[in-house]
Amino acid sequence: MPQFFRRAVLLAMMAAVATTFALAASASASPGHAAAKRKAKRKKPVAAERLVVATRRGQPNVQAQASLVIDENGTPVFAHNPDHERPIASISKLAAMLVVVEKGLELEGLSTISKIDCEVGKGGAKSRLLEGMTLSNRDLLHAALMGSDNRAIPALGRAVKLNPGQLVAAMNAKAKQLGLKNTRFMEPTGLSAGNVSTPREVIVMLKQVIANPVLGPITRRGEYDAHPVGKPPIRYNNTDGRAARTNVQLLGGKTGYNDFARYCLVVATKIDGHAYYMAFLGDEGKLTRFGDVARVADWIVSHKAKTMVATAGAQGPAAPAAAAPPAAPAPAAAPTAAAAPAFTTVPVSAPAPAAPAEAKPSQPPIPIGVAAGPTSAAPVPSATP
Q: How far, in Å, CA of 342 to CA of 47, rounded?
């Protein structure tokens, strides 16, 4: 009998110890689990964090540090620091692709991603072009312009017998040939802060790419499937696709991002039946550049009866155009930005009557990063750089 009680007491003690360990494990796990849930709840889209109004002082409320919008005739529609040099990140790829195509790139030729290609593209967005993968040069052009894949650039340079240093030299020679005095390249992909240009000059590069019979159709594509030899297809979606809206048709473009350049975009569009070229350099937030397109497009549509130039300059009333002969008005050049930016409207033709827009109720705010019109403020998922 005493032996029976000893066994019962031993079993009870073992059960108590097991229960204690189980409770301790549960207590230690629950704070971590709760913290993970709290962290997940705190994740919100960047676009939902700030709102900006669609217009400011009667002009599109563009957020980029340097920007330019011109129409199909080259007339400025909006300008803010249009000739200010800034890093342009992957917009550099426009010059690189012009060089390789003009060097006689064999589109159906095959190129294999090498270790050097991986090293040249190191530090940028994750690449889906793995070392040892073989693709056609046509596929690599799409990967470079649509997917902004850094490894495609040195591979294409090698296809026309240019190493990375020679490709950079050819890019600088191309910029000089195009008369781009403020455009310089230090490396071919856009990872360097030394790759600089201006809103005015990146528009010139984009026009050259769009006019090229090989590159133009690529920039207009929305998606493309590359076919590596012996591997599954790789789907590329054009990184500038978020600029398209109900009132904006895309004709071509290129995005860019690095820590120095911030978010950049140069794009050709058709709005209300007319072509417009837009460049936005130095935006904060992945979607802000597309929001800038939206704000400019809505402003153009709402002011289509007037021909005006919006510029960031000194405050004060616009100079009257009555001094010029009304039969032959002289186009007004976009002045450079002053120290304290304030938006001013400069009539190009006859002086317009007082703008009735100030008497209208203010438009609803657009999230900085949302490419939506004044009637929609829904956040848009992030775009790739």
A: 25
Q: How long is the chain?
A: 385
The DSSP output letter for 248 is B
Helix (H) or strand (E) holding 117: helix 115-120
Q: Which residues are catalytic?
A: 90, 93, 148
Residue with tokens 């705010």, as numbered in its chain: 365
Question: Does some domain include residue 261?
Answer: yes
**Structural domain span for residue 184:** 48-90+179-227+236-367
Domain contains 21: no
- Predicted model pTM: 0.70
Beta-bridge mates of residue 223: 237
Single-letter amino acid code for the residue at 310: A
Instruction: Say whether pLDDT at 355 is over 50.
Output: no
Q: What is the pLDDT of residues 74-119, one digit of tens each?
A: 999 999 999 999 999 999 999 999 999 999 999 999 999 999 999 9
User: By three-state DSSP, how is residue 262 classified?
Assistant: strand
Q: What percent of the chain has pLDDT over 90?
A: 63
